[in-house]
């Protein structure tokens, strides 16, 4: 039962819905599960707060659990 949290800056509701649909499809296909077992949350992050709210706590401090690392370093 995967739950995915997406943290994102400045996207429309339409884009968020597409992200949710594509992630759901990818998870159901890859894990061979029904979509009823998938939940997805999308959190809007203010661009100026990205480093403190996302980069430091979720990327730097949890780098051992990242399967796709970013190609940027804002520090």
Can you offer a commentary on this structure?
The chain is α+β, with helices and mostly antiparallel strands and 75 residues long. The chain has one domain (3-65): 2-Layer Sandwich (Macrophage Migration Inhibitory Factor), CATH 3.30.429.10. The chain is 40% helix and 16% strand. The chain contains 2 helices and 2 strands, in the order βαβα. The protein has helices at 13-31, 50-60, and strands at residues 3-8, 39-44. It has a two-stranded parallel sheet. β1, α1 and β2 form a beta-alpha-beta unit. The chain starts with a strand and ends in a 15-residue tail after the last helix. The mean pLDDT is 97.
Largest sheet, spatial ordering of strands = 1-2
| Radius of gyration over C-alpha positions, nearest whole angstrom | 14 Å
CATH superfamily: Macrophage Migration Inhibitory Factor
Count of distinct strands: 2
Q: Estimate the global geometry from the Cα principal axes.
A: globular
Distance between the termini: 35 Å
CATH hierarchy, class: Alpha Beta
Largest β-sheet summary:
2 strands, parallel
Strand content: 15-25%
The secondary-structure class comes to alpha+beta
How much helicity do the residues have? 40-55%
CATH architecture: 2-Layer Sandwich
CATH topology: Macrophage Migration Inhibitory Factor
Mean pLDDT: 97
Q: Low-confidence parts lasting 5 or more residues at pLDDT below 50?
A: none
**Number of continuous helical runs:** 2
> Could you say how many structural domains there are in total?
1
Element-by-element helix/strand order? EHEH
Organism: Rouxiella silvae
Protein name: 4-oxalocrotonate tautomerase
InterPro entries: 4-OT-like_dom, Tautomerase/MIF_sf, Tautomerase_PptA
Keywords: Isomerase
């Amino acid at each position: 039962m995967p739950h995915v949290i997406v943290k994102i800056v400045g996207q429309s509701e339409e884009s968020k819905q597409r992200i949710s649909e594509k992630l759901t499809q990818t998870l159901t296909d890859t894990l061979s599960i029904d979509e009823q077992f998938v939940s997805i949350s999308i959190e809007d992050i203010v661009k100026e707060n990205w480093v403190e709210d996302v980069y430091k706590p979720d990327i730097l401090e949890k780098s051992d659990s990242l399967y796709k690392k970013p190609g940027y370093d804002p520090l």
